[in-house]
Write a structure and sequence with these properties.
Blueprint (H helix, E strand, L loop, with lengths): L13 E5 L11 H9 L3 E4 L14 H13 L3 E6 L16 H5 L3 E4 L4 H10 L3 E3 L12 H11 L7 E3 L8 E11 H6 L13 E7 L3 H13 L8 E8 L12 H9 L6 E3 L12 E3 L2 E7 L2 E5 L1
Parallel strand pairs: 1-2, 1-3, 3-4, 4-5, 7-8, 8-9, 9-10
Antiparallel strand pairs: 5-11, 6-13, 7-12, 12-13
Helix pairs in contact: 7-8
Length: 301
């Protein structure tokens, strides 16, 4: 399947900030709005930014309606998801992408937004896995924000190089990027939001999970055949992992290594992608080359 890349943003265009998952106080977005305006963009806040329904940014219907409005509005050239949390999977089946197909636009976010990144890829469209407005100005996140800007404005992808890692598996592979949050990728297995992994380079990250959960999710991806046929694997942040009173006995990276070694694709660990400040933007669906050797690992377009 060929992947359609949305048009690059230009100064003077309109972008929307919405929250398809957890609620967010609007004042927390003020710094991000100022940054987007400094990039020459006009910012529109969706209805969900004022939404409040328990943990969610409004009930499912409000969040779906808001996202649909931004998909259908031809003047909105990118949709930035304000934050993650939980809830995107509850609304994705109610979205109609007919208007989006007629005029594709960037959708950007990560974590819970992995649902949309994968869903769009399954439809044949690229999107951005990158820092969200609520995190635009976290300490140490300056490069992450700059890589998001580059992706939105269609600037060339800068290669990402990481140091050697004991668990790296050498090799070179080329394929379209697919992936994101491991928990969400496992959740959408067997749904319309599942994008195929075969022949592609999978990237993974996760946060605040028990180690046995990591094992269980990877076991599911393995048993369901999703890891078979991968071109390569990029391993990002697995942050704030938890364990039981009786230890699981392996770290998150060791668990990944156990399943990756069943196959023979190259694997690079330590990439700056995930729930930490150095969350560099990746274009899901972009064709990249992963090289893993004694010098470390490199991802380039």
């Amino acid at each position: 399947m060929s992947i359609s890349i949305p048009p690059a943003l230009r100064a003077g265009q309109r972008v929307a900030i919405v929250s398809p998952a957890r609620k967010i106080p609007a004042p927390e977005l003020a710094p991000a709005i100022a940054t987007l305006q400094s990039w020459g963009l006009e910012v529109v806040l969706g209805e969900s930014i004022a939404g409040d329904h328990h943990q969610f940014a409004g009930d499912d219907d409000l969040r779906r309606r808001d996202f649909q409005q931004q998909l259908d509005d031809p003047s909105i050239r990118a949709i930035l998801c304000a934050r993650g949390g939980y809830g995107t999977a509850r609304i994705v089946d109610g979205l109609d992408f007919a208007g989006f197909r007629a005029a594709p636009k960037w959708v950007a976010g990560f974590s819970d937004i992995t649902v949309l990144n994968s869903h769009l890829l399954a439809l044949g469209y690229a999107s951005i896995h990158g820092v969200m407005p609520v995190l635009f100005h976290q300490a140490g996140g300056e490069l992450a924000l700059e890589t998001l800007r580059r992706a939105l404005f269609g600037e060339a992808f800068q290669p990402i190089e990481v140091a050697p890692h004991l668990l790296n598996w050498p090799g070179t592979a080329t394929g379209a990027l697919v992936g994101g949050n491991l928990s969400l990728l496992q959740t959408i297995t067997g749904t319309a939001s599942q994008a195929g992994f075969a022949g592609r380079i999978l990237f993974l990250e996760d946060l605040d999970e028990y180690l046995y959960h990591i094992d269980r999710m990877l076991l599911h991806l393995h048993r369901s055949g999703q890891l078979a046929g991968l071109a390569g694997l990029v391993v990002g942040h697995f942050s704030a992992m938890r364990d039981n009173a009786i230890p699981f006995g392996s770290t998150a990276l060791e668990i990944i290594h156990r399943y990756a070694r069943i196959y023979d694709f190259p694997v690079g660990y330590g990439f700056p992608v995930g729930h930490e400040a150095d969350n560099l933007a990746l274009v899901v669906g972009q064709t990249v080359t992963l090289t893993v050797n004694g010098a470390g690992a490199r991802l380039e377009a």
